[in-house]
Every structure is written in structure tokens, then in C-alpha cells.
Amino acid sequence: MAIQLFTPTFRVDECLEEIRECLEKGWTGLGFKTVEFENKWKEYTGLPNAHFLNSATVGLSLALKILKMEYKWEDGDEVITTPLTFVSTNHAIMYENLQPVFADVDEYLCLDPRDVEKKITSKTRAIMFVGLGGNTGRYMEIVELCEKYNLKLILDAAHMAGTRLNGIIPGKEADVVVYSFQAVKNLPTADSGMICFKESELDELCRKLTWLGINKDTYARANDKGAYKWKYDVEYVGYKYHGNSIMAAIGLVQLKYLDQDNAYRRQLAEWYNQNFKEYHSKIKPVFVAENCESSRHLYVIAVDNRDELLLALNESGIYPGVHYRDNTDYSMYNYAHGTCPNSHNISEKIISLPMHLQLTKQDIDFISETVIKYTY
Ligand SMILES: *Cc1c(COP(=O)(O)O)cnc(C)c1O
């Protein structure tokens, strides 16, 4: 049996029961379960606002759009970001005619505050921090830099559902936090995401923009007793970015198990760590920052023979991944090639080993032995 990098788990009967409620009620769209999921997410994270979206990509785009509108940024203003991420992070900056400025990563594969500080200019408006694999890295130092230089902070928490820092869910310090519930993330639905603004006025604006700029959603209108429910206003050229009740139904079930599931992911990571303990000369696990309880979306190691090892693992029926290729290697971002040497070097060495809830200790041992066999 092949061992895949990600195999999402769904409690099928429970998901179907939640979905059944939507179908029986005849309410699959915006409202109903989306509101319930938003409320549960606020309760779970302790964040003041949460708006359910059809993806994290649109969330990152809206985060920048709304901050740009609110704080009157100009086209070409700079956002400091990481080259070691899924392209959504950086595309979102481009969508809003802002300029991605790449800063290097540290040993946690997250933004290195020392390099970030060097890359701040008079045009810098924000920092985009990615908690890679669920790791918080030096996030709190980035928060301090944002305070010191009066920059906005966007947390791309696509890998961070359930991550805690010093015992609490991080994000209250950021201006916006964006989560992904895409099909193979650690809280999988099929496609959806959540955007959490610090400021309630920005959350309100966001809710208008995710539904074509209309100033009242269907749910609110259906609950409105007045005869003028159809007489909404359109205040902006908004988008069709909001989430729906079927996705929220799955999300509600996933959220119930999130802490339990992440604990098992940490157990898998611990088994890998044990297995590689004697082999750090050639197999270097990326460790989790101090005081971080990671969601463990990823388990990443660095090896010198990455490409050969990937092929050898495939031949043994193991299908790992790479998170990520240095984004400045892509033609879209190669204007910044050479600006982040550490990211570049590490991106040639990293492998994400299989990490999902259907793996057993035996699977981890088999994968580890195979990695060791082909590295030594
Ligand atoms: C997956 C991912 C996204 C995009 O999430 P979608 O929900 O698929 O749009 C953004 N940033 C990072 C770091 C990701 O891994």
C-alpha cells in the first residue's frame, strides 16, 4: 500500500448528519451553518472576529485589499513576505498592486526577524508571516518589529489551525489572521477558509466585500420581518468570496476533533524525531520553536541528497512532498532571486514526510528506516 503525504480523515457519518441538516432545511449557502462555524471558531480561537470564506487565497487577497483601503496605501507599496510558502501568499500581494519584498527564513523555515528588519524601507506597509507547517518560529519578534516600525501584520495561518503559542492560539496581535480549510490541510473541508480581523469595522467591510458589496447578507434579510428585504444597497464592487453551509457543516465536525487530531500529529512527529535522533549528521529535522504547540500540518527534514531520496522513497511506495520551492525560483518572482540565500539553500534540501491521521507507528518506523537507508 502506497503511503501518501496527506490523506485527509473525515468522520463520515457525522459530516453527513451536519450536511443532512442543510439539505433538509433547504439552506446550503451563506448563513445557517456558516454563522454557526464562525461563532464556534471565535470561541475556539479567542479571536474577536471570524468570517467564513471559500478559500484562504481569497482571504489573503481581502486582507491586503482592506488594509490598503483603510490605511490608504499606494500601488507599489511594499509588503515583506517569505519565499518559502505556497504561492497564494505572494500572489495575494500582487493582486492588490503591492510589491512583495522577500526576506529570508530561519531554522524554523519562518521569517527571520533579523533579515526582515534589514528589508524595511519607507515604503514598507506590512509583514506577511507564514507559520510553516504549524510552527510559530520567531512570530513574537515579528510582532515587535511591526510595533516598532508601525507596520500591519498579516498572519497566514493556513497551516496553523489549532497551533498554540505559550498555551494560547496566536493571532490577537495580528491585524488579520487567515486560515485554510482546503482539502489536504490539517482541518480539511473541501475548499474553504476563515478570515479574522482584529478590528470589527474591517470585519464588517469584509463581509460586504465577500458578497458583491451588498450591505446585508441573505441570512440577515431572511430574518428581517420587513417587506423590503430585496431592497438592499450595493456599496462596493465586491466579490463572490464567502463560504457556504455545506463546507461549514464539514468544518464544524472537523473542529470538534481538531485538538485530538493535532495531538496525534504531534505523536507522529515525536516518533519521527525519536527515529532520527542518532542520525542528525545527515538527517536534520526542522524543530518546533520553544513554547509552540504545533498543529503539525507538516513534518519536514533537510537532507543533502534530497532529489535522490525522493525518488528512492517513491520506489518504496512512499510519496513525500516539498514545502516549498523557493518562490524566487518561479519566473513570476525571479526579480528577487538571490535575495534570500538561506531560503534558497534550504529549499533544495527539504522533504515533507507523510503526515496524516491514518499513519501508524509502524508506518512511521518504515518511512524512517527507508529514509535512513537511502541517506547513509
Ligand atoms: C494552502 C495555503 C494557502 C491557500 O489556501 P487555500 O485555502 O487553498 O486558498 C495559503 N497559504 C499557505 C501557506 C498555504 O499552505
Anisotropy-based shape: globular
| Spatial arrangement of strands, main beta sheet | 2-9-8-6-5-3-4
Bin the helical content: 25-40%
Oligomeric state of the chains present here: single chain
Mean pLDDT: 96
Major sheet size, sense and barrel closure = 7 strands, mixed
> What is the CATH-assigned architecture of the largest domain?
3-Layer(aba) Sandwich
Order of helix and strand elements from N to C terminus: EHHEHEHEHEHEEEEHHHEEEHEHEH
Overall CATH class of the largest domain: Alpha Beta
How many structural domains in the coordinates?
2
The number of helical elements comes to: 12
State the total count of DSSP E strands: 14
Structural class: alpha/beta
Low-confidence stretches: none
Ligands present: pyridoxal-5'-phosphate
> What is the straight-line distance between the termini?
25 Å
Task: State the CATH superfamily name of the largest domain.
Answer: Type I PLP-dependent aspartate aminotransferase-like (Major domain)
| CATH third-tier fold name of the largest domain | Aspartate Aminotransferase, domain 2
Beta percentage is: 5-15%
Rg computed from alpha carbons, rounded to a whole number of angstroms:
21 Å
